[in-house]
Design a protein that fits this description.
The protein has helices at residues 7-14, 18-26, 39-45, 56-67, 80-117, 123-139, 147-157, 178-184, 222-226, 332-335, 345-354, 392-404, 426-435, 449-454, 470-482; strands at 4-6, 36-38, 158-164, 169-173, 202-207, 210-212, 229-231, 235-237, 241-245, 258-271, 274-280, 294-298, 310-314, 324-330, 363-370, 382-388, 411-417, 439-445, 462-468, 490-494. With 495 residues, the chain is of the alpha/beta class. Helix 4 runs antiparallel to helix 13 (426-435), helix 5 (80-117) runs antiparallel to helix 6 and helix 5 runs antiparallel to helix 7. The protein is globular, with a radius of gyration of 27 Å.
């Protein structure tokens, strides 16, 4: 019987998204059973898969991380203890398989002896068939592109984690912590300090084994110890397959309001109208938020003529970016000249950044998150993102999160600009389209947007996320509703 793999495992082997694999199943190109796919089926559909090409997954992920403008993570091997544990488990599986084959071989021999001892009409033909079948099975060479062997190798290198009750899955690469791996995969587990003090990231190990990578000052109760609770922020996966019971945030109301202090890493100019602000949170106090949400940023006291200056901005980065928070700040010229910065906090905030009044290493306050412009986690519809001018900031966060969690089998991005060159990150969008199957990017003038949307026949069956200035998004939203788009499929962020 052919070995069966979960869809996440199969996608991991092939270096494609789980949604792309599910699409092939729905179209009848690939057969599955009870959420599993056989290695024989994978070999049939992807005959070109070769062990020498087994780096395709890493190459694809590297392309994706470059596309998101992330810092590439250093690839490390699992710890010696994890390698030994996983190799030992595979050795046990191999030994059991050998015992099973030995029993089957003995059964064949016993059957041959019975046929030889009690000849009857037709038994000679049956005995010959058994001899010939056994000889072919023993002499058959191993396939050059053996998916089972590739899966066995990846099971040693990366642990597969299934989360209950959501059913989400992620992979632990090298010796990274369970929390870091879950965040990298776009999941939203509960957590706080990130260094083993608060206990908010505790999870119950349902199956498999974990190992603590660092000491922790949090003390579990006797009941928690008996139920096999661990802290995700200090533990990594020891076994190749791990099942955890984890509390995850599924809606904005599940995320608490937070006040933290982050340090300025850099301010750089994306084009003449847009600045990029990069903040980094402390290791012990990361910001929990859902992709698409906003926060209030505050400049250090005294920077703006002795006053505390605060302004609200959408987070442009994904929660999977760990401690890094990215914001797209319209420049003062884009917002218009203002004689009184105090009358427009966002104008004053941008002026201070552009004038270099805030330096790398300075502390800014972060308060939030706010807003409900987040992905509908219960929907399996295709995703259509419509960004108008700087409305791309929250859209950027949503797209990175959607890709990280395989949220849809297809993603379409319309980025409309009210002025020439308004798409201030065109290379990133083109990189997404080049690196990811089923991703479409259409840069447009704002006047072209209604006609482009009307030409999309799949729009009515999609979830649409629209972000931009209020005076731009409200007429477009009214047009979409008038065309019959259900309200539950239209999500709006008016900036």
């Amino acid at each position: 019987m052919s070995q069966r793999l979960t869809l996440s495992r199969a996608a991991h082997l092939l270096g494609i998204s789980r949604m792309a694999l599910q699409k092939r199943i729905r179209e009848g190109e690939l057969s599955s059973f009870d959420g599993m796919v056989s290695v024989d089926e994978l070999q049939r559909v992807w005959p070109q898969l070769d062990l020498e090409e087994s780096g395709s997954f890493e190459k694809t992920r590297a392309i994706r991380e470059d596309a998101f403008a992330r810092r590439l993570r250093e690839r490390v091997l699992p710890s010696q203890e994890a390698l030994a544990q996983r190799l030992f488990a595979q050795g046990q599986e191999l030994a059991e398989l050998q015992r099973t084959l030995t029993r089957y071989h003995a059964l064949f021999e016993a059957l041959q002896e019975r046929l030889a001892a009690a000849p009857a009409p037709g038994t000679e033909e049956l005995a010959h068939l058994l001899d010939e079948g056994l000889a072919q099975a023993l002499a058959a060479p191993a396939p050059r592109a053996d998916v089972s062997a590739l899966d066995a190798m990846l099971r040693v290198m990366s642990a597969h984690v299934t989360v209950k009750p959501s059913g989400h899955e992620f992979f632990v690469e090298g010796s990274e912590t369970l929390l870091k791996a879950a965040l990298r995969a776009g999941l939203t587990p509960n957590y706080g300090c990130g260094n083993g003090l608060c206990g908010l990231c505790k999870a119950r190990v349902v199956a498999g084994e974990t190992r603590a990578m660092a000491p922790s000052d949090y003390r579990f109760s006797a009941a928690e110890k008996a139920q096999n609770h661990v802290l995700m922020c200090v533990c990594t996966a020891l076994s190749s397959d791990l099942v955890l019971e984890v509390l995850e945030a599924g809606a904005p109301e599940d995320i608490p309001e937070q006040r933290i202090v982050a340090r300025l890493r850099s301010v750089d100019r994306l084009n003449e109208d847009m600045l990029r602000l990069h903040l980094q949170t402390p290791r012990s106090n990361r910001l929990r938020f859902l992709a698409g949400q906003r926060v209030t940023l505050g400049l250090p006291a005294g920077v703006a003529s002795g006053a505390d200056l605060h302004a609200e901005y959408p987070i442009a980065s994904c929660p999977c970016d760990d401690r890094n928070l990215i914001f797209h700040i319209p420049s003062p010229a884009r917002r218009g000249t203002s004689a009184n910065s105090q009358g427009d906090p966002a104008q004053g905030f941008a002026e201070c950044l552009e004038a270099g009044m805030v330096k790398a290493g300075d502390e800014l306050s972060v308060w939030g998150p706010w807003g409900s412009f987040v992905l509908d986690q219960g929907s399996l519809r295709s995703l259509v993102f419509i960004a108008i001018d700087e409305g791309f900031a929250p859209i950027n966060s949503l797209i990175e999160h959607a890709i990280a969690v395989d949220a849809a089998e297809s993603i379409t991005l319309y980025w409309a600009s009210s002025r020439p060159g308004g798409q201030y990150l065109p290379n990133q969008c083109r990189a997404w389209a080049a690196a990811l199957d089923e991703f479409s990017y259409l840069p447009l003038d704002l006047a072209e947007l209604p006609a482009a949307l009307a030409a999309n026949a799949a729009l009515a069956a999609s979830d649409i996320y629209l972000a931009g200035a209020t005076q731009q998004v409200e007429p477009l939203a009214a047009t979409l509703r008038a065309a019959g788009l259900p309200s539950r499929q239209l999500h709006i962020e008016a900036l």
